[in-house]
Amino acid sequence: MDKKTEEFYIRLKEELQATSDWPSVYLYKFIVPTDTQKIVIVENAFDNMGAVINTQQSKNGKFTSISVNVMMTSPEAVVEKYQELSTVEGIISL
């Protein structure tokens, strides 16, 4: 992980600690190239967590947005999930 990415995650964790009580429901938003395998990887990352997952394909069908509402235990857990999914080729975390 490069220094800029590491600093982003540190800042995100600090902001989450300051603005929310934990555990808390967190909304993840991702954009992935429309590829069933990539979508399944994201969905499986939240398997057995009670997550509500919504997907929507872009107008041209090239990309799919994935919104995940899920109860997370801490800011650290939120950041860990982002880091876990950062390995999915072409994923954009919003």
The topology string of helices and strands comes to HEHEEHE
Summarize the biggest pleated sheet: 4 strands, antiparallel
Count of individual beta strands: 4
Give the neighbour order of strands across the main sheet.
2-3-1-4
Rounded radius of gyration (Å): 14 Å
**Tally of alpha and pi helices:** 3
What structural class do you assign from the helix and strand content? Answer: alpha+beta
Protein name: DUF493 family protein
InterPro entries: UPF0250_YbeD-like, YbeD-like_sf
Pfam families: DUF493 (PF04359)
Structure summarized in a few sentences:
The chain is an alpha+beta fold and 94 residues long.
Describe the structure in your own words:
With 94 residues, the protein is of the alpha+beta class. The protein has one domain (3-93): ACT domain (Alpha-Beta Plaits, 2-Layer Sandwich), CATH 3.30.70. It has helices at residues 3-19, 36-45, 75-85; strands at 24-33, 52-57, 63-72, 92-93.
Q: Keywords for this structure?
A:
globular; 94 residues; alpha+beta; Alpha-Beta Plaits
Note the topology.
Blueprint: H1 3-19, E1 24-33, H2 36-45, E2 52-57, E3 63-72, H3 75-85, E4 92-93
